[in-house]
Amino acid sequence: MMQSNFSYFTNEWQLFKNLGESAEQSIYRDPNAALVKIRSLTEKLTDAIFKIENIDSWGLKNQFVKLNTLRNKGVLEVELFAIFDAIRKAGNKAAHDGSYGTTEEALKMLELVFYLSCWFMEVYVAYDFQSSGFVVPVDNEKEQVERILLLEQQLHEQERSFKEQLEKAVVYPTTDPQIEEKKRRERSWKYTQKYPPNEKQTRILIDEQLRANGWEVDTDELNYKFNKTMPEKNRKIAIAEWKCGNGYADYALFDGLKLVGIVEAKSYGKDISGDLVQAKEYARDVQQIDRIDLVGKWGEYNAPFIYSTNGRPYLKQLADKSGIWFWDARTPQKASYALENWHSPEDLSKKLEVDEVRANQELRDDQQYPDFAERTYQVEAVKAVEKALENNQRRMLLAMATGTGKTRTALALMYRLIKSKRVRRILFLVDRTSLGKQAADALKDTKIENLSLSDIYDVKEVSDVKPEDATKIQIATVQGMVRRLFYQEDGGDIPSVGTYDFIIVDEAHRGYTEDKLMSEEELTYFNEKEYISQYRRVIDYFDAAVLGLTATPALHTTEIFGKPIYTYSYTDAVVDGYLVDHDPPYKFETELSKNGIKFTEGQEVTLWDPETQNIDKALLEDELNFDVTAFNKKVITESFNRVILSSLAEHIDPEVPGKTLIFAATDSHADMIVRLLKESYAEKGIPVDDDAIKKITGYIRHPNKEIKRFKNEKYPKIVVTVDLLTTGIDVPEISNLVFLRRLRSRILYDQMLGRATRLCPEIGKTSFKVYDAVHLYDTLQDITDMKPLVANPKQATMDIYEAAIHSENDEAFGFYKAELIAKLQRRKQKLSEKSKSEISELNDVQSLDCWLQSIKVMSKTELETQSENIQRMAEYKAVSQPMYISVAPDELLFVERGYGEGNEKPSDYLNGFNTFIRENINLIPALHIVVSRPKDLTREDLRTIELKLKEKRYDEKSLQIAWRNTKNEYIAADIISFIRQAALGSPLIDHETRIKNAMQKVYGIAEWTPMQEKWLKRIEEQLLQQPVLGPNAQTAFDDSGVFQQNGGYKRVKAMFGEQTDSIVETINENLYA
Asked: Phi and psi of 607, rounded to 5°?
């Protein structure tokens, strides 16, 4: 009898040897049983790997979940995972269908499990192991029957005692476990490089990939060259070895009788991106024959979709050697690219329905944009995306400031792309369910010709798992899509790569971070060997163009989406009047903020422990110095806060229109601010309702309710927060921002400023004020926006708990429960032993470890009983460093306002402005027009000037305030007046007086009728809003939205006749005379 291929397994791994040999012996007699045995061997190998790697498999209910865990932890290379998974699928089919399986398929799987077994031996058992190569078993019926009976007896006993055998077999290293783990990873990588799957094994993997995506495929059986296999109606077949001229394509894809694709398959380790050339040649040479239909001809090509692959799962770092390279012959100008998976037959059928060239032309011709997104910059943003799509750009980024209507812009884009049939189905991807609900509400509320977008197109919301055939827009969370794509067994409901052909990622700066910065939970559940974040895998998975929307593009955002194709910045929005800017910030300086807080060596200091809430005394061994960056974080200084808040109470009246947001360092600091601010108002005799000043942080009972109250009700007027209100809140009434905490992130600072930029005409808001007590404005001047964001996922534990108990199926429940346990485990690590003991007592459990273990096996009903216990642990204060308490007195030195780039004094700011104007008169054309011939100035010229000045932080409001503080006179002059004063020494006249003087000249031209006077008043009102009409009457009345809406130049001409032009000329000549 020939020796088994698995005889190399040593005695401690005898079960593996016997499972392998039992499969061999069954190949010819009972291939179904052989497939089950092969699957069983891989399952036992998996259990052994978990044991050796010391990975907890508790709660991992099946082989699929275990394999995913090993892959996500970097234990399995992508090719190893693919082989494990192929065996799992074949074994599952055999286990569920006793008639499934052929000798040929069983032999293929046997060779694959031999490959895995050799890998296991080399990585985990004998590092110098050398395989003698796979040998096809001999068919010897008599010997096989006897041997199978013997093996079955041994296997029954060995499987029963496998856990005990495993404990004996695993020898834990005496050296550093991390070093040993690193060595195992290196050995695994070397094995896959030294022994890549051979050509036969590669074909097995490709067959399985095609089969999983809806194609009938069997390289040996469905083969034209050897079996003359032909396509058939109503079958979706990948026929191997299809005749193409003098050669044979590795696969031809047939949808019924229609030839829709040609595939070139290469050996596993070979570069494949360049091998599309061979596939293209086959697509040129393939001929029309009886019983097949060529669906068209595109230049030289007789097949539309062309592929090249080597069976290796896609990995971005090995893009040329992995994935499925794809080229669409219908659009020859579009470059080839790699796919993560195969198109399904339905994908290709739908793809053939899209005529991109026709749709692009239709979009170019259609200059009608929806009324709900008709602002110039919104139209320009939509045009930029459409142009990028026409140029075959697959990754795009729109950068639009908070409050400028990103969602409306996205809705307009979706409407046009679907209407023109440029795209079939859009995925709108959000990172939180609440944002998904907002998007769904926007689709319902936004109407075109009295129909909402939801009425026009079938829209699926976050709660809808998958799209219907008619669905045009699907809203989904990244987390939900991750589960659908990467955590479903057997792929039954996994979307195909062609399910969506356009993806919009809302708030693209969130979540999309490089892997090494991810949290522990994300590393456990969302990590592909530290290379590809699952966030990124979602958008990379689909064969779709992807658009990111963000207000604050960061370095990692541009690395994923590319540089913005269109930017509408906060400055643009302020200049155009869609957002408000802040006045020059108020800077507070105290004795302590200037000189810091010092503790000397040997001094007795007071320490406050946030964990125990106790105050202790200690003698300092060394001198300690704290500057303002540590105030309220490392050192508690009530005197500093009291001095600042006392001064703030003189600047902010809580009873006047407008609301105030104060940013504190910690929750306890927020409590102190509320107390001291109320005391300050009381000391000054200013009556303040107790509800007017409140703390809203994550530690209060109902933060969301309090946020709504802050937005919609009179009180609170002043809110103190830490991080809760830095993003995601829209309270237009916020008119004051107070910084009592230091930041290092410019993006976070910009988001905080964004809380106050919204227009609020109801209270006459034209700007907002910034109060800086911690030198924040100075320190952030030189910090660029383009810094990598540190990942800091803040999904609340109770949110995950709620998702678990409201999950719709067992799979989702298991996923959320595992995520919940990971969150609680991470929380446990931050608790002191005293806290752990207290929680255990309150939760009535023996220990937190035992309790967490019990959660793993809880049903949904049982988990529902744990709400209070989970919330208690989630909110229990973690271990924190003691804070020093300073009793050093403080006093206010000054409050001043900082102007411009250098946070300068007002006189220096004005001098800098004058210098800039004089030095740039001849360098900036629009500036030259203002100085030399202001009557020729256009609105676009004015906008250019304002943007150029904004770059240097010069703006009309700041110049007005600086002039008042320097000259002791307030003149509400416009920016043109300030420029002409700086360049020519012209007297500064306030804007309203200048306009009225010019209009008096117009009123005196003739005796106007009441209707004409009404129009002249309208012109005057517009000039008060914007100091430029235009160089001539037609430009003045046709380029302004206000006048356009009332008939434009034609209507004005009808009203004033030949005097129309002279009216504009008179205004222009007298405005800046």
From this structure: -120, 140
